[in-house]
Specification:
The protein is α/β, with parallel strands linked by helices. The chain has two domains: 2-20 and 202-406, no CATH class; 29-181, no CATH class. It is built from twelve helices and 18 strands. The strands form four sheets. Strands 2, 3, 4, 5, 6, 7, 8 and 9 form an eight-stranded mixed β-sheet that branches. Helix 5 (193-208) packs across helix 7.
Length: 407
């Protein structure tokens, strides 16, 4: 069940949540003869001279890029190298995909082809073949050995991690076995029964090994680039929620919390995507980062098993999308959800908002008219209250024309 009653602009969101993300189809595999696997690169530039999301994946014998071989289909590009830089191998390998270091991708995109290692085709034809992967990260050091929580996820799924070979040099193989994806992009994110089975495998492990926890209401705290989230977390704490920083816990510890809790809360993103491991019909309070930013990933995960998801707007992130700061306030919608009286915004709401706007303007972030339209039910009142605090505006050293960026 999805509850949108606590959004600023429910009508703008309804069509997004009406999408059916489950696909009932039989997965298979393709064989790419004399294909080349290109390791992930982030430093290349596109043919338009702009930085790309990333580069790497599979190129077939005719130099055609296999778009689904990137971390998510259609987002990446191939790159070319002199022939002498390409290593050659007569082996047949099984391509498991590009493993991303971001946790949200780890529990979605990273495991989308693992079903194949349990399939009859693998057991009868390809059991002796080497599974291979690419690593996708902007960090200087990243390996499957370092990524302990992802290793543990693979172990729970019954995968022998030490048998997976990481491709670090462009290599042309005699054959590359490319399994279909159980979680993929087709207009929006889609999933198949194989992905649901992987999630059920993890949840069953958690149920079998669960131990009691102190609190049954949990707030997953993200923190990074989220101005004002600390106040959101403190508000939830006042309502009896335990604040959890998941990066400080092992995957087993996180699973035990998730499988036990009765109410889970988080801002949308990698933290909220852990809700896929909750028990059926558990309450999940999800706070969007910005206007219309409900994320296709989260909507898809909400459909993997029954969940009681409640979307509550408590942000004023006016400067669109992308990897930048987001701004959170204690909104009237959030207080209404908990039955609290709303007497206007606090001083810290205004301070955080001004810091967010100042950062966004200095980084040349573009304000979107669609964003203003979404925030219309609350933005005018918020700015009116802010104007009455000229002392805060002056103390924040805002540029003289700062408000013109919001009009």
């Amino acid at each position: 069940m999805i509850n949108l009653d606590y959004l600023y602009n429910k009508d703008a969101a309804v069509s997004f949540f009406n999408r059916d993300c489950f696909v009932d189809k039989e997965l298979g595999f393709s064989v790419i003869k004399r294909g080349t696997i290109l390791p992930y690169r982030s430093k290349f530039r596109t043919h338009r001279g702009k930085d790309g999301w990333g580069f790497g994946g599979i190129v077939d014998s005719d130099n055609n890029f296999v778009r689904s071989s990137f971390v998510f289909g259609g987002a990446g590009e191939a790159y070319t190298l002199p022939t002498e830089e390409i290593r050659r191998s007569r082996r047949t390998v099984i391509y498991l995909g590009m493993f991303h270091s971001t946790w949200g991708h780890a529990i979605t995109d990273n495991i989308r082809r693992l079903w194949f290692l349990k399939s009859d085709a693998f057991k009868s034809q390809f059991k002796r073949c080497t599974p291979v992967c690419l690593l996708c990260t902007k960090r200087e050091i990243f390996s499957l050995k370092d990524y302990q929580n992802f290793r543990r996820l693979l172990e729970i799924l019954g995968i022998d991690v030490d048998k997976i070979h990481t491709i670090t040099q462009p290599t042309r193989f005699d054959k590359i076995i490319l399994p279909d994806e159980s979680f993929y992009l087709e207009g929006t994110r889609k999933f198949t029964e194989e992905y649901r089975e992987a999630v059920e495998c993890v949840r069953n492990f958690a149920l079998k090994n669960r131990t009691p926890i102190a609190a049954d209401k949990i707030y997953y705290f993200h923190g990074q680039n989220q101005i004002g989230e600390d106040r959101i977390a403190e508000y939830f704490k006042s309502k009896g929620y335990e604040i959890v920083s998941p990066e400080k816990l092992t995957f087993d510890e996180q699973l035990n919390i998730l499988i036990n809790c009765k109410s889970f809360a988080s801002t949308l993103g990698s933290c909220s995507m852990n809700s896929v491991f909750l028990r059926d019909d558990t309450e999940a309070i999800l706070i969007p980062r910005s206007a219309n930013r409900f994320t296709g990933y989260q909507n898809t995960l909400n459909q993997v098993h029954p969940i009681n998801a409640k979307y509550i707007d408590s942000s004023l992130s006016l400067f669109g999308r992308g990897q930048h700061f987001y701004c959170y306030v204690i909104s009237e919608r959030l207080k209404k959800f908990f039955g609290d009286k709303f007497d206007g915004y606090d001083e810290d709401d205004f301070k955080n908002f001004l810091q967010y706007v100042k950062n966004s303007i200095s980084n040349n972030r573009v304000f979107s008219p669609e964003t203003k339209k979404y925030y219309e039910p609350v933005l005018g009142d918020f700015l009116a209250q802010l104007h009455r605090r000229e002392d805060l505006i002056a103390a924040s050293a805002m540029p003289p024309d700062w408000e013109q960026n919001l009009l």
